UniProtKB/TrEMBL annotation:
It is a lipid-anchor. The keyword Hydrolase does not apply. GO terms for cellular component: endomembrane system. It comes from the Eukaryota. It is found in: Endomembrane system. Belongs to the small GTPase superfamily. Rab family. Keywords: GTP-binding, Lipoprotein, Membrane, Nucleotide-binding, Prenylation. The chain holds residues 9 to 185 of 227 of the full protein. One of its GO terms (molecular function) is GTP binding. The keyword Protein transport does not apply. This is Ras-related protein Rab11A. It comes from Rhamnella rubrinervis. Signal peptide: none annotated. Its main location: membrane.
Amino acid sequence: YGDGNQKIDYVFKVVLIGDSAVGKSQILARFARNEFSLDSKATIGVEFQTRTLVIEHKSVKAQIWDTAGQERYRAVTSAYYRGAVGAMLVYDITKRQSFDHIPRWLEELRGHADKNIVIILIGNKSDLEDQRAVPTEDAKEFAQKEGLFFLETSALEATNVETAFTTVLTEIFNIVN
Ligand code: GDP
Ligand code: MG
């Protein structure tokens, strides 16, 4: 998980957005450090984390930005979106409201970000199946209509977190190559 001293071929900025408490910081902790915490405090001061991975023999540094508690509607500044080539739009499968807010987040994202930004919709906390409030089909349908990738993840169980990032990063890689 360290960046080492290898030569970097690409740096891709990816932003995490979505309501508070959906698991954005834990998804990032899982991807960047393979860590998870059940009582996660807002990671104040930390703007982004990086992890370098290899895609088609090139080294790609993913620079993943976390909102650090600015999740109120329109509180995320345009600086946050600037230069982003990927976005992960996260809701919690056990909180219907967090899914109902996705169109707002998408609108805000499309208003601020590059029009070619690669977006993945993520339904997090898939380990809490017994508390599910958002059917997979609803999200899949929404993603299809809006042209987004879609996956359900569990930061806790490390399910699909790696796949979510590699999906976005590989798509970005293919666009720039
Ligand atoms: P953020 O506000 O979107 O950054 O959300 P956090 O990453 O701080 O997570 C909010 C709460 O949900 C914390 O208590 C996490 O431990 C918990 N959480 C995050 N991801 C998962 C997950 O995949 N499954 C479960 N069961 N809890 C999670
Ligand atoms: Mg957070």
